Amino acid sequence: MRMKGWALAAVTLCAAGMAWADTAAGQVRQCANVVEPRSVEYPWMSIERWHQLNRDKTALAAKGNVDVLFLGDSITEGWPKAEWDSHFGSYRAANFGIGGDHTGNVLWRLQNGGMDKLRPKVVVLLIGTNNFGLCGEAPEQVFHGISSVVASLRQLYPDAKILLNAVLPVESKPDHPRRSNVAKLNRDVARLDDGKDVLFRDYGPLFVQADGTISPAIMPDYLHLSEQGYRIWGNALRPDIARLLK
After folding, report:
1. Positions of the chain with pLDDT under 50
2. What would the CATH number be for the domain defined by 5-245?
3. What sign does the CA torsion over 151, 52, 70, 213 have?
4. What is the distance between the alpha carbons of residues 214 and 169, in angstroms, rounded to a whole number?
5. How does 86-107 read in b/e, with b if 16+ C-beta sit within 10 Å?
6. Where do the structural domains in the chain lie, given as residue ranges?
7. How far apart are CA 68 and CA 229, in angstroms?
8. For residues 65, 70, 73 and 76, what is the CA-based torsion angle, rounded to 10 degrees?
9. What is the value of pTM for the model shown?
10. Is 23:132 a contact under the CB 8 Å cutoff?
11. Beta strands of 115-195 (E only): which ranges?
12. The three-state (H, E, C) secondary structure of 26-59, written as one string
């Protein structure tokens, strides 16, 4: 499922409002390595809606014929069609992002969504921001969750290359503690790059202005991307994907 630009607004803006609520309230849920489907009802997505999206992805996986597999949360799910087609239309690419997913949800989907039917050549992975925002986890916990997802992908798709994205920066100001948590996580995640099968890329600086702030023209809610933001991401991803497909 791919939603275009502001067609995702109702989901993304509500999600942004919820995104850091658990952290602010000090409520921590164990998500990183807890292999589970969606277990929390949110105003922007019910548990049943999540299961329907997963059934849609399962049906997509059953068709196979995917060379480039995108996996992640709402940031991945939200690719505008025009930007998706412009950057990846020449590939056999499929979008397996589901809004609100944390690493435990992705681990469950890898085991239960019929994704063993796929044989991608490249997996583009971006996951982890909801471990902070919806689970209230610390960078160390999120790192273990991302490590588990990468390990699961290596086992499921041993011949695939993994383009491991750094978690994108959040919040407008560079000194915000949430931005610092993301930066700390990414320093750890960078160690998963093995120079062979897993390629780590931090595209985050492309979304940050010279003074360290993030423009709402790129991230309207300082979490999700605008069409301009997707264009920036696509321009960065495309040469790396092309290189990994060779």
Report:
1. 1-25
2. 3.40.50.1110
3. negative
4. 8
5. ebbeebebbbbbbbbbbbbbbb
6. 5-245
7. 21
8. -110
9. 0.90
10. yes
11. 122-126, 161-165
12. CCCCCCCCCCCCCCCCECCECHHHHHHHHHHHHH
For 166, the 3-state DSSP assignment is: coil
pLDDT of 113? 80
CA distance 224 to 217: 11
Active-site residue list:
74, 221, 224
Give the number of other CB atoms < 10 A from CB of residue 212. 14
Q: Give the up-direction half-sphere exposure of residue 142: CA atoms within 13 A in the CB hemisphere.
A: 28
Q: Which amino acid would we find at residue 146?
A: I
Listed as own residue / partner, the contacts of 48-55 with beta carbons closer than 8 Å and 24 or more positions apart are: 50/98, 50/100, 53/1, 53/98, 54/98, 54/109, 54/112, 54/113
pLDDT at 245: 97
CA angle 72, 122, 32 (to 5 degrees): 30
